[in-house]
Design brief:
alpha/beta, 243 residues, RNA methyltransferase, RsmD family, Rossmann fold, seven-stranded mixed β-sheet, 38% helix
Length: 243
Amino acid sequence: MKEQLNMRVVSGKAKGTKLVAPKSDKTRPTLDKTKEALFSILFNLAPDLFTEPGSANCLDLCAGSGQIGIEALSRGFAKATFVESARPVKAILQANLEKTHLMEQSSIRIQSVQTFLQNWQAAQKEAEPEAQPEKELEAEQKVELEAKQGTKLKTELETQLEAKLDRKEFAYELIYCDPPYRLAAKLNALVLDYAAKGLLAKNGILVLEQASETPHISAKDGLSLVREQVYGLTRLCFYMWEA
């Protein structure tokens, strides 16, 4: 591992905290200027993610130092999941989370993006409720009690479903993927595909980073490319659900 680069948290409760990112062939830190522009665009596209603190979740793929997820947490996101395949980077990521006092809001997965996405999909299938017809008697009793109490009661099936949903991997309001540029075409296309499968929350934004000379990936399955921005050698592509 080569020398390290110093960065900082741009805004929020951890503003000004210096972060460290390994400078190696496997990681490429996003510059502070680009990061500041990124979050300015995010705020303009989806201000509710920042004006309702503690309600949004961030997925930082190919996280490296974790600076994107850390910036999101600093600005009021509830939780961040960091996915990074380079095991030596884990210590630096943990150190940055400890310095910013954001460890309790964070989850670190040392695995490939492909493995994380496959596990997420498996969790969705496990959480799907089995189709079970409600008994007529139970339905009638439920309606009668609701009328008496003026409240909506849960059926046994609904209760079981909620318990399963509590265990399943949730959707994310912000997904950021910053793969090595040589792998960006393949990994970004994969992430876009999973975003359309429900990885991206309905009010969320997916941001794919790639080399500036690489054209954007066409949106699919209800997602739309709403903006793209070039900063030097970097192209950022922003996707949201169509209205």
